[in-house]
Amino acid sequence: MLGPLYLGWKYVIHHRSKTVILVAAISLTIFLPPALTLLVERGAENLTSRAEATPLLLGAAGSPLELTLNSLYFNEAMPAGLAFASMDAIDPGLAGAIPLYVRYKARGFPIVGTTSSYFSYRGLPLLDGRPFALLGECVIGANVARRLDVGVGDTVISTPESLFDIAGVYPLKMSVVGVLSPSLSPDDDGVFTDLKTTWVIEGLGHGHQALDQESSPDLVLSQEESSVTANAAVVQYNEITEANRDSFHFHGDDGGYPISGAIVLPRDEKSGAILQGRFLDAGEVQLTRPDAVIGELLATVFTVQAFVLLIIGLVGVATLITAVLVFILSIRLRAREFLTLQRMGAASGSIFIMMGAETLFVLLTSSLIAAVLLGLSQLLGTTELVLWLSR
Prior knowledge:
Layout: H1 2-14, H2 16-52, E1 56-60, H3 64-73, E2 82-83, E3 95-106, E4 109-114, H4 117-122, E5 126-129, E6 137-140, H5 142-148, E7 155-157, E8 173-180, E9 191-194, H6 195-202, E10 205-206, E11 220-223, E12 228-230, E13 249-250, E14 258-259, E15 261-266, H7 269-278, E16 285-288, H8 290-333, H9 335-343, H10 348-380, H11 383-389
Parallel strand pairs: 4-9, 6-8
Antiparallel strand pairs: 1-15, 1-16, 2-14, 3-4, 3-15, 5-8, 6-9, 7-8, 10-13, 11-12
Helix pairs in contact: 1-10, 2-8, 2-10
């Protein structure tokens, strides 16, 4: 019994190229279906957990999906703009609201304009520093700090939307005053600042050097009792510091300034139902339940997953048929070898055992590799490992 097994093992080892190709093909065939299922389930879990933790979202009338992806996951999909004053439609007796303005980026990471209440609502403790409190300050997520190698006392600069900005809106250098602890959520990739700082980035607020006819005669085009008209040589600041912070100002009513949405936090379930009823025919604004929106999205994802698994299954069947064909051809090509073994006294059963051993070694090795890959896939997604790697 051991003799045929030994010969089968030596044959597998000797023909390394054929063995490696067979093992790789069969391993992937075994690994891909459960790996894809694991990936989709884990992604769905992450999406739904954040959506379920967010009761309602206020946004401009339009796509609920764009509003949800932008407000919860800081996706690049920009929903229709909403006036800041639209938050007044939320009855404070029924719910509180946290504004969000997610439009700009800093070196590829989303800049999230909001209030300091966002951190307590999401349960985001600070690893270092303090929350933002002044114009031009920001708090960064754990991934931002690690990938950009910045921390408290450093700066991050907003990225212009276009290379040539004819409106004269310059990139803003923001001071980092805090770093968030890893949370394994989109918040790890955020650069958080107050709404007014994002409005400065948009060019709605600005600061410039002081003007008067005596100290800056070359910069003044005309001067009246109530106003001073400057020329294009006046320097606009792209960094807010202690020295120039008081010079920054906004023109017009900030109620008309834009936000991308707001997180609405009802006092209780009854208050949430009343609010949703009030916004059924709101017209220019919408009140959306993120869990329902993500549920519809995941239904589509699972439908696509079923088709993908079906295709992978068909490819797997084709792979196994090819492997069987390889073994059959191998038997025919080795006919003289088997004849020699029979003339040396080997029984026909021993030859079948040897061939079975070769097939078994390939299948066992493939299954072991697939199991190891699947185990690593499960391990790499665990909270403990990700937090350890984030240190």
